[in-house]
Amino acid sequence: MASDSKHRPVYVISVAAELVDMHPQTLRLYERKGLIRPGRSTGKTRLYSERDIEHLREIRRLTQELGVNLAGVEEVMRLQHELDDLQGEFEAEIARIEDELREQGQARELPAPGAPSDPKDRPVYVISIAAELVDMHPQTLRLYERKQLIRPGRSSGKTRLYSERDIEHLREIRRLTQELGVNLAGVEEIMRLRHELDGAKSHLESNVRRIQQDITERMTKWRTLPAPHDEEDEHEDQ
């Protein structure tokens, strides 16, 4: 989890409930469902952070303004927690690299900065094949694209091309709507977060590679610098 002040547990349950205009029992229910993850004091008292408050307000927006059912809210908050954890992983990875450099004075072998992207993102399926793979009508896929639930690529001739990740997203949309009964507003929120999560993971990996590559280049330059001459040795040589 990220170490900034937003994640510091400070509010007891009564204060947190007042801040989000909910009953404390509602907060306990949401915790049991895994929608929020308050911290604990040494005496096991629940303590909520600013980030928890933001999550609770988001839950209220989803349920009261968008009419998303609890199954849909669970999906949204699970993805939101993944994004929070990903940010924490990024910060931890940067700290680990810095520690490794301090302790060892060298960097690991790294993949080239232009390493190929995930093959799952390569657009390969035309719409008729994609629709068959997910058991949907092509018109449904067009609707989902207009709603920005999926984002297929385009060929040079502007033909829609779907990737393996698009197929995964379409199957997830079907699961949300058919199995969990999530309404379209809820699906839009969930898929927006899925796209954000995919982008954040890619950004994290790219940033870590870039930082490590920069460190590698600097370490290579340092190793090739000429060693400094000892002044006393120079005088003795004379």
Automatic annotation (TrEMBL):
Classification via InterPro entries: DNA-bd_dom_put_sf (IPR009061), MerR-type_HTH_dom (IPR000551), MerR_fam (IPR047057)
Keyword Nucleotidyltransferase in annotation: no
Residue ranges of every copy of the HTH merR-type domain listed in the record: 10-79, 124-193
Keywords: Coiled coil, DNA-binding, Stress response
Parts forming coiled coils: 76-103
Keyword DNA-binding: yes
PANTHER family: HTH-TYPE TRANSCRIPTIONAL REGULATOR YFMP, REDOX-CYCLING DRUG-SENSING TRANSCRIPTIONAL ACTIVATOR SOXR
Record protein name field: Heat shock protein transcriptional repressor HspR, fused homodimer type
Name of the gene encoding the protein in the UniProt record: hspR
